[in-house]
Amino acid sequence: MNSSDERHPLFNREFRYLWIGNTISGCGDQFFLVALPWLILQLTGSGAVLGGIMMVEAIPRAALMLIGGAVTDRVSPRKIMILTAASRTLLVAALAATIWTHHVEIWQIYVLCFFFGVADAFAAPAAQTLLPSLVAPAQLPAANALSQGTQQIAMLTVPAPAGIIIAALGVAAAFTIDAVSFLFIIAALLKLRDPPRVESAAPRPNITHSILEGLRYVKNDVALRTLLLVVSVLNFCITGPLSVGVAFLAKSKFGSPATYGLLMSSVAAGGLVGLLLAGARQKRKRGRLLLIVCVVVGICTASIGLLGQLWSLLPVLFVMSVSAGFLNVHLLAWFQQRVDRAMLGRVMSVLMFASLGLMPLSLAAAGVAVQWNLPGMFAGAGVLVLVVTCVAALQRPVREID
Asked: What residues contact 120, with CB distance under 8 A and at least 6 apart?
C-alpha cells in the first residue's frame, strides 16, 4: 500500500467534487421528502393515495434495477448519473412550476414518482460503480462512510428547517430548492473524467445475457453470494421491524408520539456513529468482524419486543443501529473491492436490488406480523439474522475475508 492509498479520500480532488455535489443535492432531497407527502395530503387528504404514490415509485425502481446495472457496465456511469440528475431536475422544476401557477393535479405527482423510480434504477448502480474509479481500494470504507454519514446528517438536520420554509413560503419553494440543488451534482459530475472502459474482444451480449452474466458471477463466488444473502436478510429483517414495529411498539406500550420520536432519534444517532466507526476501522480480518457484528444485530433485534422500559429500549436500538451502519459501509466497500470492474455495475445492481427491492415486502410482512404478535415479530427477525450469520460463518471464504 502506498502513501496516497493511506490518505483520507477528501484529499482526492475528484472525490471531493463528487462529495460536495452529493452533499448539496442530498440536502435538497430532504426538502423534497418533506414537501411531497405534505402536497399529496393537501390535494387528497388520503393516506391511501400517499402509500399508492410511494409504491408507484418503488415498483419501477425494483423492476429495472438489474437492467440499470447492465447498462452501467456498457455506458459511462458518470454519464448515466448526469442524465438521471438532469431528468430529476426537469421533473421537480416542472412540478414546482405547476404549483406556483396553481395547475397542480395528483396525476402529475404519480408521473413524477414513476419516473423518479426509473431514474433510481439506473442512478443507484451507476453511483456505486463510479466511486471505486475515483479512490483507491483501501480508501473505499472511508469514502463510503463519509458519503453515507453526510447524508445521515442531512436527514437529521435539514427536515426541520425545510418544514419552516414550507410553512412560510409553501411547498413550491421547497421543490424549487430541490431542483436547484440537483445542478450542483450535475456540475460536479461534469468536472470528473469517465472511468476507464474495460474492453473485450468478445461480441457484446444483449441486455438479458448481460444480466444473467452478472447473476452467474455472483453465484460462482462463494463469499460474494453468501454475503449477498446476508445483506438481503439484514435488509428484510431490519427495514420493516424498525419502520413499522418500533412505531407500533411506541403506540401500544407508551402511547406517546414524543417517545416514538425519541426512539427513532436513537436509531438515527446510532446509524451515524456506526458510519463514523466504519470509516475509521482499517480493513483487517473483516470476515470474522462482520460476522460478529451480524450476531450483535440479531441479538438486539430479537430482544426489542421483550423490553418494556424506555431506558432499556434506547440503548438496544442505538447498539443495533451502530452495528447496522458499520455493516452497511464495510459490506458495500468489500463488494466494490471484490468485483471485477467489467462486472461491477451488474453486481452492484444485484446488491441494490437486495437492499431496495425487498423494502416493500419487509414493510408488508412487518405490518401483518405486528398484528399477530409484536415480540414474536422482533424475535423471528432476530433469529433469522442469526441463522443466516451461522450459515455464512460455515463458509471458509467468508471467514477469511481480509
From this structure: 57, 61, 84, 356
Q: What does the block give as the cell for 154?
A: 442531512
C-alpha grid cell, residue 91? 421533473
Q: Which residue in the block uniquely carries the three cell numbers 447492465?
A: 70
Express each pLDDT in 330-354 by its tens digit: 888 888 888 888 888 888 888 888 7
CA angle 170, 171, 177 (to 5 degrees): 105
Task: State the cell numbers at 198.
Answer: 474495460
The one-letter amino acid at 66: L
Q: Residue 145 in contact with residue 331, Cβ under 8 Å?
A: no
Q: Which residues contact 104 (CB under 8 A, 6 or more apart)?
A: 39, 43, 95, 98
pTM above 0.85, yes or no: no
**Single-letter code of the amino acid located at 123:** A
Domains of the chain with CATH codes: 3-189 (1.20.1250.20), 213-399 (1.20.1250.20)
Residue pair 211/118 in contact by the 8 Å Cβ criterion: no
d(CA 216, CA 69): 14
Q: C-alpha cell of 272?
A: 451515524
103 SS3 class: coil
CA pair distance 347, 69, nearest whole angstrom? 7
Q: pLDDT tens, 41-91? A: 888 877 667 767 877 887 888 888 888 888 888 888 999 999 999 999 999
For residue 161, which of 258, 27, 47 has the smallest C-alpha distance? Answer: 27
